[in-house]
Specification:
CATH topology of the largest domain: Diaminopimelate Epimerase, Chain A, domain 1
Bound molecules: the ligand N[C@@H](CCC[C@H](N)C(=O)O)C(=O)O
Number of strands: 19
CATH architecture of the largest domain: Roll
Strand content: 35-45%
Shape: globular
Structural class: alpha+beta
Amino acid sequence: MKLRFTKMQGAGNDFVVLDATRQPLTLTPEQYRRLADRRFGVGADQILIVGPAPAPDVDFSYRIVNADGGEVEQCGNGARCFAKFVRDQGLSEKSAIRVSTHSGVIEPRLQPDGRVTVNMGAPVFEPARIPFDAAGLAAQPQGDHAQWPVEVAGQTVPLAVASMGNPHAVLRVDDVDRAPVHELGPKLESHTRFPRRVNVGFLQVVSRSQVRLRVYERGAGETLACGTGACAAVVLGIRLGWLDPWVEVETRGGRLGIEWQGAGHPVWMTGPAVTVFEGEIEI
Ligand SMILES: N[C@@H](CCC[C@H](N)C(=O)O)C(=O)O
């Protein structure tokens, strides 16, 4: 089967975007892995499948598949690329687009400067809803929230955890360039405390409004940026008393602006969305 695709990136987090608005598209996990493969396929951290609206109050649906072939709930950088994709392909003329994902409706808005702002919805902190197995762990109170002591690689690390629709664990470090991303990332990603695995963020606080972040993503390894990871890290940093409500996040692939006004409010993420090329692949 020949498949048309668009290669996109948001702050260096790269995607193969597929249009399934006119006809249903179901690939096998092996086919998704092949598309994501940087040597045998197109190459991507995630595959985004844009589909028709499943209900009258939304404009589209979109599904997200990690490079390992597993379908997941949410993707922040992908949401920005999704919005640019539907506009560029002439699928919508709106600049605020409501899209249904596996973890609810989000609303990307195209900005006049080409960046995209997304209402990512409200974060969730209850361990059971992340999901995070906190049984037997005493939370370490700090600020108005908690970090959890988790045993990994012979050490105990304090993790803050949240869901942005998908699960995140965040570890504060002094310097992201020297952080043990490849030592602790894979071990925490599939740690028994996280029954659905987890995205692992390494957060360096530069000031109350600026952080540096690296994320070892579930199902993809370290990416140049993770949008939901940036939302989770900032939200947890705010709850722990480290950060102000508006924070610039420096990733290895670009900068994201994250705003959160506190409990009950949605997280707003602003950043780039770029088309790299279009093509066709035999899959
Ligand atoms: N890169 C993404 C997140 C993609 C999904 C993630 N790896 C997961 O498994 O939850 C982003 O920008 O948010």
